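2024-03-11 09:14:02 INFO receiving multi-entity request
2024-03-11 09:14:02 INFO entity count = two
2024-03-11 09:14:03 INFO echoing inputs for audit
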Amino acid sequence: MEGGFGSDFGGSGSGKLDPGLIMEQVKVQIAVANAQELLQRMTDKCFRKCIGKPGGSLDNSEQPGRPGAGVRAVPGAAKSRAEPCAPPLPQKCIAMCMDRYMDAWNTVSRAYNSRLQRERANM
Amino acid sequence: MDSSSSSSAAGLGAVDPQLQHFIEVETQKQRFQQLVHQMTELCWEKCMDKPGPKLDSRAEACFVNCVERFIDTSQFILNRLEQTQKSKPVFSESLSD
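2024-03-11 09:21:47 INFO inference complete, emitting structure
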């Protein structure tokens, strides 16, 4: 494979620019950007799901959809209100939400990939 | 595709074909990733009520359907725009109707 690249890629001055190194660095930057994007959207969604009226701390924040619950001072009392899907503390809600968001992301990724392959097969 | 011929990157001078290919591949990968981000966000609103200990089968089916319908919608929009553009161009001088 003859080509024009090599040591003359950017040889003026100190150091040569190795395309392989550049590619690896770019890949890393892309991965970081994707992780940041995922984190940002996940934080947005899970904040909406788990924090209703913000309290003075994470422990003391209401979860949405519980009208009249007030600031949570006694976690035990909240449990006795028997809401099977609402965890007692926002942290637990957030943790579950994070895992579910990852599940959702993976499901969407798989489904989209399948659809793309199907489209290609139909061409 | 003959990669050993003169560079196909018109106007860019001697661009390394290996780098060129890398850029194309990564760009496409990023397009995919971006759409996954976007669809996950959209479908989360439609399919996720209250996050539970695991993704139940109904929610999972909803996500799959959501992806398919989103792609359908996107294709429909492109096709219809193409058709209406033929008969009545949108992006032209005569915008007022």
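2024-03-11 09:21:48 INFO post-check: Chain B has a mean pLDDT of 85.
2024-03-11 09:21:48 INFO post-check: DSSP finds two helices and no strands in chain B.
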